[in-house]
């Protein structure tokens, strides 16, 4: 007996950043173990899901010297880096790897305080995502009121 498949419940596959880097804004984020690091990462996720031609890529793989990820960063249409705090670790990883950073943002510059917690609000993520999208000229498919 055949089952009906609800297409809305299937996972949405992302564009292949290795195959399509030239057509994509590649986003590298901080994944720091504090509030602003988590906000930065979640902003990257939101820009990937709701943006146009944007794709989150693995910052740690670049730091580890993965040739594929280095190549993605070097071929990207634009590279957007979102750091959590003024240490700017993700930006430094890209600079050391020789990847040109087109836009570098720091979550604390948007009025967020670094806190020793991983509990963050959707409102803070949306606030930062909308501000970054506006600065880079990216349209987001989201309701601006969470």
UniProtKB/TrEMBL annotation:
InterPro entries: DGC
A Pfam family that the UniProt record links to this protein: DGC
UniProt superkingdom: Archaea
Listed name of the protein: Zinc-binding protein
Organism in which the protein naturally occurs: Thermococcus peptonophilus
């Amino acid at each position: 007996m055949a089952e009906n498949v609800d297409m809305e419940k299937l996972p949405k596959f992302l564009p292949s950043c290795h195959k399509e880097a030239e057509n994509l804004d590649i986003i590298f984020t901080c994944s720091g173990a504090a509030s602003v690091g988590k906000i930065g990462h979640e902003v990257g996720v939101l820009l990937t899901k709701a943006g146009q031609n944007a794709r989150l890529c693995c910052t740690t793989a670049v730091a580890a010297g993965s040739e594929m990820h280095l190549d993605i960063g070097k071929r990207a249409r634009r590279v957007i880096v979102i750091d959590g705090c003024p240490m700017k670790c993700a930006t430094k990883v890209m600079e050391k790897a020789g990847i040109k950073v087109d836009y570098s943002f720091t979550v604390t510059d948007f009025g967020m305080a670094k806190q020793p917690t991983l509990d963050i609000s959707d409102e803070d993520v949306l606030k930062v995502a909308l501000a970054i999208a506006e600065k880079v000229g990216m349209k987001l498919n989201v309701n601006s009121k969470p």
